[in-house]
Amino acid sequence: MIDTASPLYSVPRQLVLPLISSTDSYKMEFIAGTSNLLARHWLLREGIKEEWPERRLILWGHSGCGKSHLLHVWGRAHNALILPGTALREGMQEAFLSLVSAHGGGAIGIDDADLIESEALLLHLMNFIQEQKGHLVLVGRSSPWGWRYQLADLQSRIRASLSVQMMPPDDDLLRILMLKLMACHQLVVSTAVVDWLLQRLPRTAPAVYEAVERIDRFSFQHGLALTREVAGQVLQQMGCLNMEK
């Protein structure tokens, strides 16, 4: 525990402005690991999308596994239009279809596809992309076999799509991610502190992002080096500090 009565706390705290983070997940290099090997194969291997049944792929996995990041990597590689699933809802049909038509329908990615409200709009999108001989990637948190639709035609198309599960990040991937983020923030950290953090953080990329962001801000505000005590203070704020580990 850090002693707030310490002379280290006697210096005026610096004001930290909410600048855009240089560690935005879509700007960071995607980290390859065993947990995303299958997903990378079916999305990023050259020419692989021509092997997708009906030119559709559904990528799914638990929150924080990196599927949205991988979708954007695929999007950049194929000049794809990436949209949130919440855009496919009643009242948005004209604006949505206008945007998709302007893009040309060559490659479309829908994130949070399991949150789509308008089944008719999704079916229309599938028809349009098929007519244009384009490719569609749908990303969701649960297996598409659990997606329930009232439209039988839509349900059958979802079932006919290639479904690829993305596994939670493995230990090596999380370690590389944390070290990359620390380097981006110019934080000097020992291997012991990294190990200590990874043992206590949730095993997701967002948790690692949040921890490093908080540690950077805390260290800067208080003028402290990154020690285990500083890391512990931040993890307490996040509510994930277990001193028994």
Automatic annotation (TrEMBL):
<dbReference type="GO" id="GO:0003688">
    <property type="term" value="F:DNA replication origin binding"/>
</dbReference>
<dbReference type="InterPro" id="IPR027417">
    <property type="entry name" value="P-loop_NTPase"/>
</dbReference>
<dbReference type="GO" id="GO:0006270">
    <property type="term" value="P:DNA replication initiation"/>
</dbReference>
<dbReference type="GO" id="GO:0005886">
    <property type="term" value="C:plasma membrane"/>
</dbReference>
<protein>
    <submittedName>
        <fullName>DnaA regulatory inactivator Hda</fullName>
    </submittedName>
</protein>
